[in-house]
Design brief:
The complex is a heterodimer of chains A (573) and B (291). Chain A has 573 residues and is of the alpha/beta class. Chain A contains 20 helices and 23 strands. In chain A, strand 19, helix 19 and strand 20 form a beta-alpha-beta unit. Chain A is globular and about 70 Å long. Chain B is α+β, with helices and mostly antiparallel strands and 291 residues long. Helices cover 35% and strands 11% of the residues of chain B. Chain B contains 10 helices and 5 strands. A 5-stranded mixed sheet of chain B has the order 2-1-5-3-4. In chain B, strand 1 and strand 2 form a beta hairpin. In chain B, helix 1 crosses helix 4 and helix 3 packs parallel to helix 4. Chain B starts with a helix and ends with a helix. The N terminus of chain B is likely disordered. Classes of the chains: A alpha/beta (573), B alpha+beta (291). At the A-B interface, strand 11, helix 15, helix 16 and helix 17 of A face helix 1, helix 2, helix 4, helix 5 and helix 6 of B.
Chain lengths: 573, 291
Amino acid sequence: MVNYFPEEVLEHVFSFLTSHRDRNAVSLVCKSWYNVERFSRGKVFIGNCYAISPERLISRFPRVRSLTLKGKPHFADFNLVLHDWGGYVYPWIEAMAKGCTNLEELRLKRMLVSDASLELIAKSFPNFKSLVLVSCEGFTTDGLAAIASNCRFLRELDLQENEVEDPRGQWLSCFPDSCTSLASLNFACLKGEVNLAALERLVARCRNLKSLRLNHAVPPDVLQKILARAPQLVDLGAGSFVHDPESETYNKLKNVMQKCTSIRSLSGFLDVNARCLPAIYPICINLSSLNLSYAPGIYSKELVKLIRKCKKLQCLWILDTIGDKGLRVVASACKELQELRVFKSDPNDVGNAAVTEEGLVAISAGCPNLNSLLYFCRQMTNTALITVAKNCPNFIRFRLCTLDPITPDAVTMQPLDNGFGAIVQSCKGLKRLSVSGLLTDQVFLYIGMYAEQLEMLSIAFAGNSDKGMVYVLNGCKKLKKLEIRDSPFGNMALLADTGKYETMRSLWMSSCKVTFGACKSLAEKMPRLNVEIINEGDEMEGGSDDRQNVEKMYLYRTLVGPRKDAPDSVWTL
Amino acid sequence: MAMSSEESCSYPEESELELGLGLSLGGGGANSKTKPSPAAVEATMAGHWGQYARILTAKDFRSVVSPKECSSSSSSSSSMTKTNNNPSCGVKRTAEPSSPPGRSGASQVVGWPPLRNYRIQSLVNHAKSPKTEEITPAIDKCKNKTTIVDKTNCGSNLNRNVAKEKGLLKTSLFVKVNMDRIPIGRKVDLSAHSCYETLSQTLDDMFKLSAVVGARRSNAEEQVLKTRRSRLLNGSSEFVLTYEDKEGDWMLVGDVPWEMFLISVKRLRIMRTAEANGFGKCTLAYALSCL
């Protein structure tokens, strides 16, 4: 009966499906649904840019308007992947420019983006509205200038944590006077100067501006003028917040802040004088999101005073300078907290700033809605983790990083297996897990048994034998991404269930015990996987020893075979 | 090792809790519902670690301490964890058996703790004064100390860019600072500043003065909360800041543009105005009021 619906009706029904998973499911029902779905699909998410080619994407979804692409493997964030490993966006833009010019939105993560790519975007897509770049590199502000100059309907320019060269610093002035459509502008990661007058004028004419995140070249007096023009802001990233609390500027800033009653999200404070923080007290009560993780100049006392006022906070990113004591205040004040990230403030740990298991336990007791955690701590105990698991059964993301990657339970000196076991057993919706500390195969047995919804698992310096990895591969049916470093998993584990890898997006193994020979045989057996070996330095000429351990291996499923843009040091077997 | 044995034994409750999970999965003493017998713990640990070393037990420590057996086996397993590099894991760090927990050389591991480069760089720029070869972080650090109160006076964007283009920004420029009647001198990094105001604020704090030449109500970025504020006493400051230039002459700080000052300064001196012979009080007061 379902087949008798005319296509227009199907299309209308499908228009209510926004999640790409739902749409993927729908397209598998039958041929006609597949066709209706593919012509009406506007947003496509590609988790690994090498899993598919741009040409095939366009031929299946000719009307795509929004494209999300991810490039390098996650561990590239931590310097484990060569800079030029890959993830070039240019071929995608080139293909879209030829075949699909109604592209409106491009969201990229961990990709190499050249100025030429940005210029091509600016030229090729007349309706281009939104550019979001996260952890990308390879471009300069010249590329941004091209986007600013040419994209007449630009609504969103969001640059998060990119490495950007800034040779000229005039990109902001390139927004023409006719540009009034900006709703979101984030240039906090840019290191250079900006034309402040141009910025002020831009803000004044973009009446729909809701989100603005400044870099540290924007001083408080300009911030004050901007806020006076844009009291409708919902999301603010302050740049520099260093000024004299006795000054006129500060007074003006305080007054204008009071009028910014729409601000729900606050971040930045890249340079900050803690004595100026009282200026933002009036808006604290409205905040649902606060990111002070780039503001090391604020010490625990001031942090605490500030956070105490943020009673409606749902998302908090902070540095470990807050200390366990500070976390107890968070626990008592921020009852609606859902996401907490506590970052290391001192990567070399020469100071004393740190949080321990006590802070985490306090948070779990005070914030039962907590569902997402990233916690860099000096130490942890099984007891604490068990308590946390009991208090907060709703975790979707749980990522723990101990300073010493193989530190045991700080009290009993036992492995932390049972603690993480409690987490996976209690949190039935857990999708993402990063484990650290002293861990044996036992923890992976627990993970395999209980973590039924787990999609991403990060392992470092853990486990004793192949059994650990096998527990995970066998047990976690929904696993999509597995990344492992410095753990004793070898060929037996790698080859135990080769079909599994086609159900996953990717597998990363570095400094493990897999040999070249095993990788070769895996590649032979599974033609729809790309098995890449990354060799930096060590010369492995052809005819290398099959018994030699592979330093870094990255494998992923793909429909398009080995890629052609790999550098010399990356071999696809 | 004797110490830790006491610690672990004083928490019998916790080990009870650990095991009360109901994870009766067999396959090792650590999973049983009862407190593990030392032998069971030993056996489990031995199964995992046994190929690396013999497990030390209370018997080995008989002469040193009289611990309960459970504690010694857990302490010995912990000590073994620390001493044993566990080569099969490919751990890229040196074993540090005597290091305190949580600090055993974690910073030597590549990519640990797992923080994005971007984040590490921005924290490092804050934590240190700019000693890097790159100009950009040096500029960032100068910006940290920029006051916004009076742009014309202070290191404005233009000054900094000009300086950068002329290659004048040095990576670090420590000069001696001496003060009258104080035998021990200090050193200050001039490249951490971009204008006279922040420099004078820093010197003010360093020498605990209530006023230094040129110090308007300025605020530098502070790493530590300072309760004392710099106040300008409108020209009649008790102290004056001078510097020796490359030609050996002593000059009043503040006359020349900042960048020029940076090139010619060799060292600084804080004089008490009563002793600033050769300047004359009136000249001095006038000079101060011009800054």
